[in-house]
Amino acid sequence: MEKTFAIIKPDAVERRITGKIISKIEESGFNIVAMKKIWLTKKEAEGFYAVHKGKPFFESLINYMSSGPCIAMVLEKENAIADWRKLMGATNPANAEAGTIRKEFAIDVEKNSVHGSDAVDTAKYEISYFFSNLEFCE
Ligand code: UDP
Ligand code: MG
Is 71 helix (H, G, I), strand (E, B) or coil? Predict the structure, then answer.
């Protein structure tokens, strides 16, 4: 079964909507096979978002992602990578479809409440960045 990596970002944890987001994940048929609360250092956030280094939003993104705790999760489902991206909605909530998490909860294009891997190789890398084999329940 396909796995993907998900984060409930600091803006959502701070507003105490992690339960609402997790409900949507479970109602959509994903199994949460690993989960933990983690407060990223700037260095850890920079490593995670290394592909965006040099972009105009990078520094602000790193400050935001290290501003408070996140919930990191591994989600499992057939077609998990594409289906989680679909449930998240577009990066900018102004462009997100109705019924998506970002449409319902995101504050703006940066504080957009959730992260999801965008391909098989990035899912693999991101899962291993946050979780060891001992942390999976399958
Ligand atoms: N981001 C931002 N401004 C932008 C684009 C992205 O602040 O113009 C932030 C936002 O939090 C986004 C993250 O950087 O989720 C990673 O960007 P990406 O393009 O990978 O979007 P995602 O894959 O999260 O939809
Ligand atoms: Mg991305």
Answer: strand
Residues with Cβ within 8 Å of 96's Cβ and at least 6 positions away in sequence, in order, are: 89, 90, 102, 103, 106
Cα 51 to averaged position of ligand 2 atoms, centre (Å): 9
User: Closest Cα to residue 106, out of 92, 87, 117?
Assistant: 92
Ligand 1 centre from 109 Cα, in Å?
7
Nearest CA-CA partner of 36 in 64, 52, 13: 13
Whole-prediction pTM value?
Answer: 0.97
Tens-digit pLDDT string for the chain (138 aa): 999 999 999 999 999 999 999 999 999 999 999 999 999 999 999 999 999 999 999 999 999 999 999 999 999 999 999 999 999 999 999 999 999 999 999 999 999 999 999 999 999 999 999 999 999 997
